Amino acid sequence: MTGVGISYRKPFLQKGGMIIMNTYFDNQIKSWLSNHIRVKVKPSTYDGYDYRVSKYLSPYFKDMRIGEITVDDIQIFISTLKNEKTNEELSANTIQGIIRTMAYFYDYCVETNKVDKNPCLKVFLPKGKAKKITTFTKREKQIILETVKKQAKPRSYLVLTALLTGMRLGELCSLKWKNVDMKNGLIHVQTTNRRIYIEDNKTKVVTTSPKTDYSMRIIPISKHLLAVLRSLRKTESEYVFCKTNGKGYDNRGIQKYFRLLLIDLGIAGKSFHTLRHTFATTAIEARMDVKTLSMMLGHSSVTTTMNLYVHPNETHTRKAMEDLSSFMLE
C-alpha cells in the first residue's frame, strides 16, 4: 500500500508546480479537529467526527502522509471496515459517514494548500438500503400498553410516554421536571442523552442539546399521559423517569429492559425505536396533518416525515381514484 513503511521524513513534497506539505495523516487530522472543527460545530456533532477519526481513520492512515494517500488506499481501507463483534461489514451509512469525515478534512487540506486534490472524491461508496419502517401491530400495541400500565414503574411509564409522544430514547432518559409544564400540559424537549467514544473502545453517556434546532420542540401532553406523569411527580428526583436512587436511566438499560419485555410478550424483530415509528404511523392513520406531525417528531422538514411515514395503502389509493372519477364525471 502506498506510503506505508517509509522510514524517512521529508518536510515537504514537490509535486508539479506546487509544494505540498509532507506531513503525517494522524497529526494533521487531529489538528484539524481541534483547531477548526471543534469551534464550528455543536459538541455532539464534534463527538461524531472525533469518534470516526479515533476509531477508524487515524489507526489505519496514521503512518501515511496526507499528500501520498490515493484513491486506491481509501478503497482498500473501506474493504477492511468490519464490526468488531460480528466481523460483518459495517453498514453503508456508517461507511459513508467515515469517508465523508475524511473528505471534509481533505477539503480543508486543499483550501490551505496542503495537498492539490481531494482523494476521496473518486472513491466508490456502498449504497445504503432504503429504510424499512417497522411498527407494532394494533394487537401488539394493546399488549404493550396493558403490560406497562400494569407494571406501573418509571421505566414502564417511559415506554408509555414514547408510544404517546414519539420522543426519542435519549430525549426521554434526559427529561427533567423543569422541562415539563404540568399546568399547561407541555413537554419542552431541550436535551438528549447520547453515548460518546472516549478511547480504547470505552464510552460514556453525556447530556447535550439535541443535534438540530428542530429537535428542540414543545410537545402537548394528552390527558391520559398527564395523569401518568402526575403519579411520577411524587418522587424527589429531578428526572421524570428515574431509578430508585433518583438517577436518570441510561439508554442501554432501557433498551435491555424493553428487549426483555418484548421477549416475554412474544414480540420479535422490533426495538425501542419502533415505538417512535408506531406513534408516527398511528398519527397519520388518525389524520394528524403532516406539518404538525413533523413538528412533534422534531424533523428538519415535512419532506422527511412524508418520505418515512406517508405511504398510502391500496385501500386509500382505490378510494382516492373512485372519488376523483366521481368528481370528474359529475
Question: Can you give a write-up of this model?
Answer:
- With 330 residues, this protein is mainly α.
- The protein has two domains: 12-122, DNA polymerase, domain 1, CATH 1.10.150.130; 138-314, Orthogonal Bundle (hpI Integrase, Chain A), CATH 1.10.443.10.
- The protein is built from 13 helices and seven strands.
- It has helices at 25-37, 43-61, 71-80, 92-111, 138-151, 154-165, 169-173, 223-232, 251-265, 273-285, 290-297, 302-309, 314-329, and strands at 12-15, 18-21, 180-181, 186-189, 192-197, 203-208, 217-220.
- A three-stranded antiparallel sheet has the order 3-4-7, with no helix packed on it. A two-stranded antiparallel ribbon has the order 1-2.
- Strand 1 (12-15) and strand 2 (18-21) form a beta hairpin.
- Helix 2 (43-61) crosses helix 4 (92-111), helix 5 (138-151) runs antiparallel to helix 6 and helix 6 (154-165) runs antiparallel to helix 8 (223-232).
- Residues 1-20 have low confidence and may be disordered.
Summarize the structure.
Helix content is 49%, strand content 9%. It has 13 helices and seven strands.
